[in-house]
Design brief:
7-stranded mixed beta sheet, 367 residues, Aminopeptidase, globular
Length: 367
């Protein structure tokens, strides 16, 4: 058996058969169709495999991306479609592939992994649930009370891609998306691993924002997988959007940076609950990650207090210091301290004033 190593071009069909068998049995080519950017030839080096007799039998992959968190540039590896044929399970193949992927991520300058799952394999390595997002199901009655200008809605077209990209780029925490991400959305019609109906919000024919929508749930609730645009533009579209789709509710996930939109929706009578962001997060380069986030910290406390903040890593223990005051946690605890969690206790001292940092929401970049 060969591996762990990157998949080769002549093994792509075998890789496709493996991930289809595990995740979308009976639908040949389905996984590559749903995740065209992830399973692109340009990303082959980040798909690690074991191959037995020319057949790909186990896979662990990632898609490396630049991201912006509160204006701070970082590098993330999005992990997904981890799969092993049943007869090859229990042999430690996935663990070895995970190790190879993690080693490459660190060598490539990746600060943390976003993993679309929470199995023991990831948690034993220190992956943790993180984030404090806000979830609501907006009713038609609340939507009717929302302020904002009347919206013009239309289906996404090629002419709208630049406007959608500009709206998304104004989000304070986001993926840094090349043009190919937007053209892929138009061509594949997929987001969050499923069909996406992208509705563009316009004014005078100009694209000012958008909603990427999933199919209506059985209970009549429509799910928003991603949105972008100025709050007054978005709220002015919600009632009309719900009427067009004939849904009884609209499920929305808001990030920390969506505070203005949340306030407008709450004023209309909607309630929110705090939830983790989804998936798990594994910190790789602890000190580098914290240093990359330092401009965010400096924006929350004065320069003198921000200068007292320091971190150290020693044998799997991660120390946060502010002058002589310190607290030490394991890798999972470091992820939770940096990015928060609905049930996590606030960090101590100055760290409690600058943390948690905002978390990323996959949206169109889900793998």
């Amino acid at each position: 058996m060969e591996g762990p190593r990157s998949v080769r071009r002549d093994e792509i069909r075998s890789l496709s058969q493996l991930v289809d068998a595990v995740f979308m049995s009976g639908r040949a080519g389905a996984m590559f169709g749903v995740y065209p950017q992830y399973f692109s030839e340009a990303n082959n080096e980040n798909h690690f495999v074991f191959v037995d007799g020319g057949r790909v039998v186990s896979h662990f992959g990632m898609d490396q991306r630049d991201v912006s968190i509160a204006g701070c540039r970082l590098r993330v590896g999005c992990v997904g479609a981890v799969a092993t044929y049943e007869e090859y399970r229990g042999k430690g193949l996935a663990t070895r592939l995970f190790d190879a992927t993690r080693d490459k991520a660190i060598a490539d300058g990746v600060d943390f992994l976003l993993i679309s799952g929470g199995r023991g394999l990831y948690r034993r390595a220190g992956a943790a649930d993180v984030g404090c997002d806000a979830m609501t199901v907006l009713s038609g009655e609340c939507a009717a009370r929302l302020p904002g200008r009347e919206a013009e809605l239309r289906k996404l077209s090629a002419a709208d891609l630049a406007g959608c990209a500009a709206a998304y780029d104004r989000k304070p925490t986001r993926f840094v998306r090349p043009e190919g991400d937007w053209t892929s959305l138009l061509e594949s019609g997929k987001a969050m691993g499923r069909g996406a109906d992208v509705t563009v919000v316009c004014d005078g024919g100009t694209c000012l924002g958008y909603f990427a929508l999933s199919k209506t749930k059985e209970d009549g609730v429509l799910r928003v997988d991603e949105f972008a645009g100025e709050p007054d533009v978005l709220v002015g579209a919600l009632a009309q959007l719900m009427a067009q789709r004939d849904c009884r509710g609209l499920e929305m996930r808001l990030q920390v940076g969506d505070a203005e939109l949340r306030a407008l929706i709450e004023a209309a009578g909607a309630s929110f609950k705090t939830v983790a962001t989804g998936g798990t997060l594994l910190v790789l380069r602890f000190a580098h990650l914290v240093e990359r986030l330092r401009p965010h910290f400096e924006a929350r406390v004065d320069a003198a207090r921000a200068a007292t903040l320091w971190v150290a890593e020693d044998d799997g223990k991660f120390t946060f210091g502010a002058g002589d005051d310190t607290f030490t946690v394991d890798r999972a605890g470091a992820a939770t301290a940096i990015f928060g969690h609905p049930e996590a206790k606030p960090a101590l001292g100055v760290w409690g004033e600058v943390l948690p940092a905002p978390t990323l929401w996959y949206g169109l970049n889900y793998t």
